Amino acid sequence: MGFSSDLKKFLGKKIHCKCGRVHFIPTREIYVGTNAQECLLKFAADSALGRKVLIVGDKNTFAVAGELLSEYLAEKGLKVSVEVFITPRGKNLHAQQELADRLAREIKGKFDFAVAVGSGTINDLVKYACDKVKIPYISYPTAPSMNGYTSPIAALSHKNTKKTLAARPPVAVIADIEVLRNSRHLSK
């Protein structure tokens, strides 16, 4: 499926607008289709992101997309590590600043880039953590219902208050159409 070439010409570019301002779209690739794993690998190689990657998901998103993605990238020669957030039975994972800060400490100096396998919560946690330690991340969506994959903010809770914090968007959003088609609210 890919993405319209008319829209793609704006990705990763500065746009001199007739409003007099310069706008910048930091996300350089958006892909929705088959062979998403191959697309992600090619993008990482073409963008010289590096070879050490952290795949982040929760138990649901890792089961439906993260495990296959991590195995594929490892088979292709990347040094893959995995972080799977586990919650108590019947509980949902929440995007808490403390979790994002912990993830940032775990990432710092160990990885060239990260891949957020999930939807809102996972992307906000990874987006904030990667921004904090200044490494790029790729969003690998598991739900078409979330609309903030390329957003420049992370919505995180801290001391029972939800905040929106500035964070760099992903360098790419690469989605497997079958994962999206089969999603059933895998993660919030």
UniProtKB/TrEMBL annotation:
Q: Does the keyword Lyase apply?
A: no
- From the UniProt record, which GO molecular function terms apply? metal ion binding; oxidoreductase activity, acting on CH-OH group of donors
Pfam families from the UniProt entry: Fe-ADH_2
| Residue ranges of coiled coil | none
Provide the GO biological process annotations.
Answer: phospholipid biosynthetic process
Against InterPro entries, the record matches this protein to: G1PDH (IPR032837), Glycerol_DH (IPR016205)
Which superkingdom heads the taxonomic lineage of this protein's source? Bacteria
Keywords carried by this UniProt record: Cytoplasm, Lipid biosynthesis, Lipid metabolism, Metal-binding, NAD, NADP, Oxidoreductase, Phospholipid biosynthesis, Phospholipid metabolism
PANTHER family tied to this protein: GLYCEROL DEHYDROGENASE, GLYCEROL DEHYDROGENASE 1
> What protein name is recorded for this chain?
Alcohol dehydrogenase iron-type/glycerol dehydrogenase GldA domain-containing protein
